[in-house]
Amino acid sequence: MATIYPNVTTTEDYSEYYDAITNNDYQVCSNPNVSAFSQVFLPTLYSIVFIVGFIGNGLVLCVLVKYHQRANVTDVCLFNLALSDLIFLISLPFWGHYAAVNEWTFGDFMCHTVTALYMLGFYGSIFFMILMTLDRYAVIVHAQTSLFSKHRSVRASVAMAFFMWALSFAASLPTIVYSQAKNESDGWKCKEEYPEGTAWKLFSYIELNIFGLIFPLSVMVFCYSRIIPILMAIKSQKRHKAVRLILVLVIVFFLFWTPYNIVIFMKFLHHLGYMTSCQWQQDLNMAMQWVETIAFSHCCLNPIIYAFVGQKFRTLVLKILKQWFPVCFGHCTTIVSEFSERRGSMSSRSSVISSTKIV
């Protein structure tokens, strides 16, 4: 059996997992449960993630493009975060089809292309979350620093966005280069073929653990541990909402990505020669299917966490939906508008701290 989808973090030839030494003989470790789960449930789960994530992130892009007049740093970060999630989501239908038929039918060029979309979106989403965290840290903790105020401009944020995309491409490059469509005994497979005798596979596991969890979680914990005391010292009714939002950001990221990275680390140990029994291989492969889907669904929550929590942003989303679907959303938009008028407009600083501000 071969992999379901090509990805440096999760894809290997399953035959390498199933080849175990049992009773001093090499035997194939069959795993029909993993195969059945992959062919039936993965396409369904990927379809749900694709539809929900595409709608949410698509609405974010539509609002930012349609209603922007003078973009700010937060908007640039949010735009690229939604864009990276969309790029990542575009690859999921291909992996879902690959899982359903257990054969890659799109050719070698599409194997490289879809892998590139997957990895660029994966790393881009994480790096832009880090950038947004650093931006909030700079705005709140170092708001009075003249040097920061001078360089915090849209032009600087665009330059930083290009740098993040370049960094995402560099992190994805080994996977893109070594991915290829290969004709095997059970059909065409799209997977990585690392050179023999190299440490590229071990490097890919370490890279994922560092960039996928350790580094972003460390940045979030450090920055928000400095932000929360400042917010608590502000005498405002909105401070508790901002603190809750920050806690939700860290907790959700930790819950969705930690199980995935734990399984990746266990695969790293397996590649080093630990946990090589047939049962361990079966358990790791089955666990990877679940934790991977959970981690992927995080991109569906990004629009809710970063954008839709803002009252003004929700109003603009409903305004677009009213234009597209007046029968379904016309009454809802009227109610929200009346409620917004009673509450008044949100302050600019609160928008930067707790949600996205559309100027």
Automatic annotation (TrEMBL):
Secretion signal, residue range per the UniProt entry: none
Origin superkingdom: Eukaryota
Keyword annotations: Cell membrane, Disulfide bond, Endosome, G-protein coupled receptor, Glycoprotein, Membrane, Receptor, Transducer, Transmembrane, Transmembrane helix
Subcellular location: Cell membrane; Early endosome
InterPro entries found in the cross-reference section: CCR1-9-like (IPR050119), Chemokine_rcpt (IPR000355), CXCR4/ACKR2 (IPR001277), GPCR_Rhodpsn (IPR000276), GPCR_Rhodpsn_7TM (IPR017452)
Classification via CDD domains: 7tmA_Chemokine_R
Domain G-protein coupled receptors family 1 profile: 56-306
Biological-process GO terms, alphabetical: calcium-mediated signaling; cell chemotaxis; immune response; positive regulation of cytosolic calcium ion concentration
Protein name: G-protein coupled receptors family 1 profile domain-containing protein
Record organism: Pangasianodon hypophthalmus (Striped catfish)
